[in-house]
Amino acid sequence: MSRFWIDKISGLKPYVPGEQPASDTLIKLNTNEHALPPADAVLAAVRDITSDQLRRYPDPTAERLRAAIATVESLSPEQVFMGNGSDEVLAHLWFAFLKGRRVQTLDTTYGFYPVWAGLYDADLTEVPVLEDFSVDVDALRDDDAAIVLANPNAPTGRALTRDDIALLVDSNSDRLVVVDEAYFGFGAETAVPLISDYDNLIVTRSLSKSHSLAGMRVGYAMAQPDLIEGLNRVKDSFNSYPLDAIAQAAATAAVADSQWLEQAAATVCEVRDRMTAGLRAMGFEVLPSQTNFVFTQHNTLPGKKIFNTLRERDILVRRWDRPRIENWLRISVGTLAQVEKLLEVVQEMVATESG
Ligand SMILES: Cc1ncc(COP(=O)(O)O)c(C=O)c1O
Questions:
Q1: pTM here?
Q2: Residue to substitute in 15, 112, 243 for testing ligand 1 pocket (most ligand atoms within 8 angstroms of CB)
Q3: Which pick of 63, 150, 275, 300 has the fewest CB atoms within 10 Å?
Q4: Could you read off the pLDDT of 78-118 as tens digits, one per residue?
Q5: What is the position in ligand 1's atom list of the atom closest to the CA of 154?
C-alpha cells in the first residue's frame, strides 16, 4: 500500500496463478500445461528468427498468424484478434464489451472472471452449477445479461455441446455470449461454426494448453468483424505490439501443424483415461473431462490432506479453499510416467490411511 495508489487499486483482489516452482524435480500437475513438448516445426521457427526480426518492431496486427488461424477455422482474418495469452484477450474483451454491464458466469469456473468484473466494475452474477458440476443452461437462458462461460469449464473439465451454446446465443440477440475455449482440442465441441450466424458470439482460445505453448503467451478471439474491431480499438489504446516476433513465428508454425495437434491431444486423452481409471479404482470420484486435467475427490480422504501428502512427495496439484470445492483436486494430465508415479503415491496414501 502506498499513498500514491488510487482507491480502485486498494480494493482490487488480483488473480493468483498456480505455483511455478523453480525446482524441476517436482512433478508439476498444477497449471494444466501440456504434457508433451511443442511441435518440432515450432522449435524450428524459433531457431530461424533473424537478427533483423529482433531489431525491428513486430507486425502489430500479427497478419500472417491471423491468416493461418483464419484458414484453419474457415474464417476471414478480420474475424481474428490476437493477444498476449488469452488472459490479455479476455481482459480487453471485458473492457470493450462488459465494463459497467450486467454479466452472468458460473459459481464454479475460472477465477479470473470475478477479478475482471471487479477491475471493470461489471455487475457479476455467479449462477450455480448443478450438483454434478454440469451447467444449468436453462438458468442461464432466463436472463438478458451478457454471459461469460469457459467451455470446457475449469476447474471441472465438463463441457457444453455446440447446441447448448447455440441455445444461449439464440435466446436473445442483444446479449453478448463469450465462450472461453482455453481447453480446446481435448474432446469438446467448439462454438466457432456458430460465428457466421451470430453477431453476439465471441470465442476465445489459447495456444497455452492445446499447442503446448504456455511459455509463449499467445491467445486469440474469433467473432464477426465489428466485435473484433472493438477489441482492436482497446488493444491499440493499450499496447500496439502484444505479440513479439518470436511468438508470432512460433504460433504461426504451431497453428499450421494440425497433425501434431491431433496426435498430441490423442496421447493426452489416453493418459487422461488411464489416470481416471486408476483414481476411480482407489475410491475417487472423477468428473468426465474434455480437457487436459481431471477434477476429483476421494470418498473418504479430505482433499487438503491428499494435496499436502502429494506436495511432500514432490507432486504438485491444484486445490482451492472455496466451500463448494474444498475437497476437490484439479490434476493436470502429465506424461504416462508422471501419472503412474502419482497413482503409486496415492495408492500408498490410501493403503496407509485405511490400514
Ligand atoms: C478457463 C481459462 N481461460 C483462460 C486461461 C488463460 O490462458 P492463457 O492466458 O495462458 O492463454 C486459462 C488458463 O489457465 C483458463 O483456465
A1: 0.97
A2: 112
A3: 300
A4: 999 999 999 999 999 999 999 999 999 999 999 999 999 99
A5: 1
Is 40-257 assigned to CATH 3.40.640.10? yes
Q: Which atom of ligand 1 is nearest to the CA of 31?
A: 14
For domain 7-37+259-354, the question of CATH label 1.10.287.110 is answered with no
The ligand 1 atom nearest the CA atom of 87: 9
Whole-number Å distance, alpha carbon 182 to ligand 1 midpoint, is 5
Beta pairing partners, 219: 83, 206
- Let me know if 319 is exposed, middle or buried by CB neighbors in 10 A (0-12, 13-18, 19+): buried
- Nearest CA to 104 out of 133, 81, 134, 135 is that of 135
What span, in angstroms and rounded, lies between the C-alpha atoms of 140 and 119? Answer: 23
CA distance 291 to 152: 7
Cα separation, 169 vs 231, whole angstroms: 20
